[in-house]
Write a structure and sequence with these properties.
This protein is an alpha/beta fold. The chain has 13 helices and 13 strands. It has two domains: 141 residues, Aspartate Aminotransferase, domain 1 (Alpha-Beta Complex); 238 residues, Aspartate Aminotransferase, domain 2, CATH 3.40.640. The chain binds pyridoxal-5'-phosphate (PLP). Its cofactor is pyridoxal 5'-phosphate.
Length: 392
């Protein structure tokens, strides 16, 4: 059978991750390549109790079809948290629940991107976003991100000259680099977006994972009409429940509802009710403090081991999130390192697929939220050995 697939599928990058994960599935491998939250930090008992309460009190409603916009009490909870944590004047009417924040990437692109539409994003940038956007055939234009901000001159030139329909960025503890924008950079991005009427699509998957617990102000705070934000409970409560959200101005929400209904009718009613019950009957802030403490310890340990064992590699020093980016000296190749790592039973993620406009051959991403302290110690020793071997 000759299957006639849509030509636009060819626009998507080859799914690099599947291939890499397939080869690193060996249980003896210590993997820093993935991006899972630590399994032991998922509050299974708490979520089980919340689910039991939902079945007892509102089981029929939670198992029935529901509305496209999402469970109102959960949207109110999220809006309330934006108000209390960040001082944003959010209302439930501006929030829609999605099937993870990954769905926002697809649906936002669906409502804004035609073939050849310019989309701006960070370089390196989140691979899942590059993949999601690619199916709508945009021209992706990137701006380098440093430890403190995107390259502001390039960001300004992009917004003024290329007029992207939106700029997609992760100001808090980016995937893959772990870097965060300074407050000054957030304000400048907001000013430029306002002047040029550019949407700033702010993926805030990691905002609650600042190690010091201090909220960083989103770009949307300084340019409300330009700000489309997404958030997620995947990194903080449970990725398997698939609860994310979009927070956007009314006209965007209206279009979002239309495409969302066509995509999958509505978010998972049971998951939403259980998530809401969990958040409102358990100590979510206490849980977050524990998650941040563990990730900070792991991150510091990984940075120290990189400094001690791999002295010619530079790396970012995240203040939150789940990832850091390491850079080898010029001439080195992260695919060669990846294969040398597999021989030593450790896995890292080559940086190349995070670079939408090419490059990144000397970089690799390290995840510090999955492995235990002991695994990090052993895994980094293996990585150092693999690095020496790959350089022979
Ligand atoms: C930056 C970023 N955005 C979005 C997602 C999607 O996560 P989810 O759909 O589970 O919310 C991820 C997952 O790793 C991510 O790293």
């Amino acid at each position: 059978m000759n299957y006639q697939f849509a030509r636009r599928l060819d626009a998507a990058p080859e799914s690099f991750l599947d291939r890499l994960f397939a080869v690193s599935r060996d249980p003896e491998i210590i993997s820093f390549a993935g991006g899972l939250p630590m399994t032991s930090l998922i509050d299974v008992a708490g979520i089980r109790d919340a689910a039991a309460a939902v079945f007892a009190d509102e089981g029929e409603a939670a198992l029935q079809y529901t509305t496209t916009d999402g469970y109102l009490p959960l949207r109110e909870y999220i809006a309330g948290r934006y108000r209390s944590r960040l001082g944003l004047p959010a209302t439930a009417g501006e929030i829609r629940i999605t099937n993870g924040s990954q769905q926002c990437l697809d649906l936002i692109a669906k409502i804004f991107v035609d073939p050849s539409t310019v989309v701006g994003m960070e370089q390196p940038g989140y691979l899942g976003a590059i993949e999601a956007f690619s199916y709508y055939q945009p021209r992706i234009k990137t701006v380098q991100v440093t430890e403190e901000s995107p390259d502001m001159k390039a960001f300004s030139t992009l917004c003024r000259e290329e007029k992207p329909v939106f700029f997609y960025g992760i100001p808090n503890f980016q995937n893959p680099s772990g870097t965060a924008y300074s407050d000054a950079a957030r304000r400048t991005c907001a000013e430029i977006c306002q002047e040029t009427e550019t949407i700033f699509y702010e993926d805030d998957a990691f905002g609650e994972l600042a190690f010091d617990g201090r909220p960083r102000m989103p770009v949307k705070k300084y340019a409300p009409e330009c700000g489309v934000m997404s958030g997620s409970f995947s990194k903080t409560v449970s990725p398997g429940m698939r609860i994310g959200w979009v927070y956007a101005p009314g006209p965007v929400i209206e279009r979002f509802d239309a495409v969302r209904q066509a995509a999958d009718l509505h978010p998972n009613a049971l998951s939403q009710a259980v998530m809401h019950r969990y958040l409102t009957t358990h100590d979510y802030d206490g849980h977050l403090r524990q998650v941040r403490r563990v990730y900070e310890t792991n991150c510091r340990q990984m940075c120290d081991l990189l400094d001690d064992l791999l002295t010619d590699i530079t790396h970012t020093t995240p203040e939150g999130g789940m990832f850091m980016l390491a850079t080898m000296p010029e001439g080195k190749d992260s695919m060669a390192l990846f294969h040398a790592c597999l021989a030593e039973k450790v896995a890292v993620l080559p940086g190349v697929p995070f670079y939408a406009e090419g490059g990144g051959h000397t970089t690799f991403r390290l995840n510090f939220s999955t492995a235990t302290e002991e695994e990090i110690r052993v895994g980094m020793t293996r990585l150092a050995r693999a690095y020496r071997n790959s350089n022979r």
